[in-house]
Amino acid sequence: MLPSEGRQRVQIEGVSPEIDGGRFPIKRTGGEKVHVEVDMFCDSHDAINGVILYRPETSQQWLEVPLSPLVNDRWEGEFTVSEMGSYVYTIMGWVDHFKSWRRDMAKKIDAAQVVPVDWLIGAELIEKASQRASGHDAEQLKTWVAALRSHYNASNGILEDKAVSPQLAALMAKYPDRQFATTYEKLLKITVDREKARYSTWYELFPRSCGAPGKHGTFADCIARLPYIAELGFDVLYLPPIHPVGVTFRKGKNNTVVAEPGDVGVPWGIGAPEGGHKAIHPQLGTLEDFRNLVSKAAEYGIEVALDLAYQCSPDHPYARENPQWFKRRPDGTIQHAENPPKKYQDIYPIDFETEDWQNLWEELKSVVLFWIDQGVNIFRVDNPHTKSFNFWEWMIGEVKQAYPEVIFLSESFTRPKVMYRLAKLGFTQSYTYFTWRNTKWDLTEYMKELTQTEVREFFRPNFWPNTPDILHAFLQHGGQPAFKLRLVLAATLTANYGIYGPAFEVCENRPLREGSEEYLDSEKYQIREWDLNSPYTIKPLIARVNRIRREHPALQSNNSIRFHQIDNEQIICYTKQTEGGHGSTAPTTDLMLMVVNLDLFSTQSGWLYLPLESLGLKPDQPYQLHDLLNDAQYTWSGEYNYVELNPHVTPAHIFWINQ
Amino acid sequence: MLPSEGRQRVQIEGVSPEIDGGRFPIKRTGGEKVHVEVDMFCDSHDAINGVILYRPETSQQWLEVPLSPLVNDRWEGEFTVSEMGSYVYTIMGWVDHFKSWRRDMAKKIDAAQVVPVDWLIGAELIEKASQRASGHDAEQLKTWVAALRSHYNASNGILEDKAVSPQLAALMAKYPDRQFATTYEKLLKITVDREKARYSTWYELFPRSCGAPGKHGTFADCIARLPYIAELGFDVLYLPPIHPVGVTFRKGKNNTVVAEPGDVGVPWGIGAPEGGHKAIHPQLGTLEDFRNLVSKAAEYGIEVALDLAYQCSPDHPYARENPQWFKRRPDGTIQHAENPPKKYQDIYPIDFETEDWQNLWEELKSVVLFWIDQGVNIFRVDNPHTKSFNFWEWMIGEVKQAYPEVIFLSESFTRPKVMYRLAKLGFTQSYTYFTWRNTKWDLTEYMKELTQTEVREFFRPNFWPNTPDILHAFLQHGGQPAFKLRLVLAATLTANYGIYGPAFEVCENRPLREGSEEYLDSEKYQIREWDLNSPYTIKPLIARVNRIRREHPALQSNNSIRFHQIDNEQIICYTKQTEGGHGSTAPTTDLMLMVVNLDLFSTQSGWLYLPLESLGLKPDQPYQLHDLLNDAQYTWSGEYNYVELNPHVTPAHIFWINQ
Fold first, then answer.
1. pTM for this structure?
2. C-beta atoms of A340 and B107 within 8 A
3. Dist CA B14 CA B12 (whole Å)
4. What would the DSSP string read from start to end of A284-308?
5. What is the complex's ipTM, to 2 decimals?
6. Burial (CB count <10 Å: 0-12, 13-18, 19+), residue B528
7. Partner of A478 for a Cys bridge, out of A436, A600, A655, B23, CB 3.0 to 4.6 A?
8. Tens digits of per-residue pLDDT, A191-248?
9. Could you tell me if A2 lies within 8 Å of chain B, comparing CB atoms?
C-alpha cells in the first residue's frame, strides 16, 4: 500500500537527547537550554535544511529554532525552555532547492558554465518564495525574479555575483518551501521544573532532637533553630517522618529488638492510634504548628521538605481499615517486612499486587496532595525502589500535572539501573553513590557518568556526605578534615547536595561498631542532644561554602564540570563555568576552579595544567585567582601552575578565576 | 487517570538488538540465531523471570525461550528463526513468587529461622500452580501441597531440604504465574532472508564482451562462459544493465563526450526506441535467450543477478510517455543529471518529487516484478542513494512480502550514515568501503565496526576488490600479488564478496590516467576482449579460495571474526569459527585461521598469539593446522607460533585448525 505522501525525501535519525526511544522525558529547569543533535540527510546531492520544533505540551503553537550542520550528516541546534510543566520537541527537515541552486550556480560561475536557463530556474524558485512572503520581502523577491528573468536574455557578470549573494540567501531562508518536509516520527518530551530542582542545598534534621535537654523536640523548637540553619546557608529543611510512631514491635535504642519504656521509636515506623500518613506525631505539635513552621521557614528562604515513606507500622489505621492493602499470610496474619534472615516485624510493607490497587494508589496520592495543601512542595521519598515503579510514574505524573513546582527526591541506594529507572519515571532528584566514592579515580569516573553521558538528561544527582543511615568509614576515621573535605566535594561537584545535621557539622563520627556504617546512638532510635557550639563544628566552612554557591552560578549546575590534569593522585582539580566556555564564542561569565587534597593527613602539592583557551582565558595574559575560602589572591600565568594544600589548614581551594 | 492494570511490577528496558527504537528490523537468514539482551528488574527483593516471545509475523501463536540472568540486571536469551519472511519478537517478564519463596526458605533454613506459616505460604503457591498444570504434573504438585500443609504442624528436617529441591523448582517453573506479567511496549522486527543473503560469491560480467573477437557478445555467449564461471566457484552472475542503450549524447570510448560511429555506449544509459527497463538490448538477444541463460546458469548452481538502475537516457520511452516523471526546466526541456561543474547530458534522473509519484512508484516496482517473472531473484541496485529513501522502503517491502527470496544489493558508495540507512530501509546486502581499506589498522577497525557494533544487525557487507568504476591504486601498482592479496581478504573477511571479471582474474591494472580509479579502455564505454588464459590469471587461486569457502561454514558468516596479535604491522591475522567457540560450551565444529601478508614486495614474519582456550582449543595439547591454499600441514603447540609469508609465493595462509 502506498503511503499518503511519498515525496518527503529527508531522513531523520539519531536524535539526541532521546531517552529509551522517546519513552521518557528529559529534564530541565526554566531558562535552561536544550541542545539537540540529529542525523539528517536526503537522497542525491540536494541541499537540505531543518529546524527543531518545540512547544509547551498544552500549547497549539510550535516554536522553532534552526539546525546547523556539524560533520558527517550531523546537525545541531538549541532552544531554551521557560515555563514549568511539560514541553515536547521534534525535528523537521526539508530539501532546499534554492540552497542547491545557489550552491551549484556558484560552482558554474566559477567554471564559466552558466547557461541561460539556469537564471529561469532560480527565478522560478524565488517567485514561489515571493508567494509565501508578504510586504516588503515579497516585493524584494519579485524584484529578484524580474532581474533574473531579464538576465535570461542578456547575461551580465554583476548579476552573476549578486545571484549568489548572502542577502538573497538570507531573504530566501525566511520563506522555505516545506511542502514535502519530513517530521521526525517521535514527539520527545521535556519535564521543566523550577530552579530548585537543579540547585538546592539540603539540611536534614530530626525535629524531636531540637528540644531542651531531656525533652521531646517540637515544631516550635524547629522554628527556633531556623536562624541557625539559615546562617549555615541551607534552603531546604528536610524532616524525617513527622507522623505518629508505631508502638507494636517498636525498636529500642541502637536498634535493639525490644524497646524500653520511654524509647521514642523509629519515625519511619509510621502509624499509631493517633493516625497515619496524614497525621502528626502529637509530641511534635499540631498541624497548625507545622504550617507555622513552613511559613516561618519561608521567611528565612527555607522550604520544608517532608519524608514520603509508604509503609506502615502494625498500628497504622490502614492495617485496620484497609487490611486488603497488605499481604495476608495463610494463617490470617499480615506479612511483615523481611529480607531473610532479617525480620522487620515493626513494618508492614504495602502489597502493590493487591486487588484493590486502584483505591490504594488514589489514597497514596492523596497523602501527597494533603501535604501540598499544607504548603509542602518537596518530598524526599524513602526507598522508592521497594514500591511499584508503575505507581511512581502515575503518581508523580498526576501530581506534577497539577503542581509542576513539586520536587520528588528519590532516596534509593540500590543497583544503578534501578536508580536510573526511577529518575526516568519522574523523580526530580536522586540520591547517589557519592558517599562511597572517595578516590580521585572513583570521583572522576562517577562525575563523568553523571554529566557526560545520557544520564545527565534525566538523573539529577543530590550528593550527601552522610545520612542517618550512612556514616562512611572515611568520616569515622578521618577526623574533622574528612568532614571538611567531603563537604567541599559534595557542594562543588553537584549543584544539589545535603547534609544530615547537626551530626555532620559537629563531626559526629562514632559508628555503632567497627565495620558498621550505622551511627552509635543513632537518632533513628532515640533523641540526641547536640552541642551546636562544639569546638569541632565546621559551621563556618559550611556557611562560607554555601555562600560561595549562592554567589557563583557556575556552581548551580553540573554539566560544565571538567577535570584537569595534575601530577599528584591525591589532588583532584575541576572547573565549572557558566555558559560561554568550552569552545563557545559567548563570553565566560563565571569560572570556578576547585583544587581538593584527598589526603586527610599530609600536605600535598603538584603542578596543575589548565587548558586556558578552552576555558575562555587568554593564554598569553596573566589571570587572577581569588580563593573564596580564605580570600587569598593569586596571579597565575600560563597553563602550568603550582598548588599545595595542608589538610590541617584547609582541604581545598575554591578559586574564582578572572582575567 | 489510572492505567487499566497497575500491578505489572517488572520493568523492561535496554533491549538489544533494537534498531532506532524498533523503527527498523534486524536481519537474519533461516537457521540463524537471534541473541537478545535486556535489562529487567522489579521493585523490592522479589525474584523475577522472563522469556523472549517471538513468531513469524503472519502467525498468531507466540513461541518462547527463557531469559537467563547475566550481571547488573541484564538478562539474555536466544532463539532461532527458520522461515523466510518477517518475524517479530518482544520480552515478557514477571515477578516469580515461588522463586522468591524458595530462595528465602533456603536462607531461613540455614539460619534456623523457619516458622510454620512459611510452609503454608509455599503450599499456597504450589497449589495455584497445580491448578495451571494438568495430568501427572498437577498430581505431583498436589502431593507437594499436602506434604507442606501437613508439615505446618509437624516440622521435619528432610522436608526442609526437599522444599528447596531443584526438582520442585523445575516443576514449578513449568507453570509460572504470569497474571501480572509485563510485556515490553515494542514489537521488534526481523527480516529473515534465504541463505544466499548471508553467503554469496559474485562475478560481474559484461555480456557484450563475451562474444567472438570483434563481435558484440550475446546471452548465448554468456551461456558458453558458464562452465568457466562455475569452475571459478561463483554462485551469482551479475550482469550490468541488459536493456537498450541510449543514443542521444551517448558517451564514446574512455568517456569521451562525443561517441564515434560504432561506439556501444554505456549500459547504464538505459532506454532507446526498442524499449526501457523491461526490454532487452537487441544485440544481446531476446527475452527467451535471457530466460535460457537464467535456467542454464541454474544448472551450474549460478543465479543471474540484474542491475536495477532507475535512470533514463533521453531516448527512454518514459521520456516520451511519462515526461511528468522528470524535472522540466522553465524552458520546457528535461533536466539532465549534473553535479556542477560536471554535466551528464546522456542521463535523465527521475524526479521523485513529481506530482505523479504514485504511478511512478508503481511503475518502478513493476520493473522488479517483471524480471522476477523471468526468474531473476537478485538485484544489484545502482546508486540507490540518489533515489528516494521512502520509495526503497516501500518497494523492497512490497516485493519481499510477496517474494521473500528476493535479494537487493545496495551499490552505494557514499557517506556512512546514508549507506547504513539504506540497509536499515531494506537492502539485503551492501557495497562497502573495503576497496579503500588496505592497511591492517583500517581493515581491523572497519571489520570491528561491521561485526561488533549494532551495524551487524542490519548491514550485510559485500566486499569487492574491484568494480567497473573502481580500480584502486593498490591494484594499479601492486601487480599480481596485489590481486591475490585483495582476493583472499575479500573472500575470508566477509561471507559475501564479488569481483568484476575477467578484469580482476587477469589482473587488469591500467588506469585511465595516473591518479584516476577509472580503468583505461573501460568496459563501461566499449567492448573488451579478455585473454582468459593470460599468464597473469589468478584463476587457480580464486577457484581454490571459493572451494574453501564452500567447504568451511566458518567462512559463510561474519560475526565470529576475531583479530589476533602478531608482532608485525604488515601481517594481519584473524579467526572465524562456527558456533561453539567464544566461551560457549558447545563444541567448535569449524575453526579457520587466516594469516595475510599485507606487504606486496617483501617476505614478512612474526610471532602470532592465539588465545587457545577461548577459541575452544586445549592449551596443553598440540593442534594441527592444514593450509588449505597449498595443503601444507603444521603442528603447533602453545599460544605463540612463528609465521612467515613470501608474497611472491603465496599472499596468505588459510588454515583449518583441528585438535
1. 0.95
2. yes
3. 7
4. G--HHHHHHHHHHHHHTT-EEEEEE
5. 0.95
6. middle
7. A600
8. 999 999 999 999 999 999 999 999 999 999 999 999 999 999 999 999 999 999 999 9
9. yes
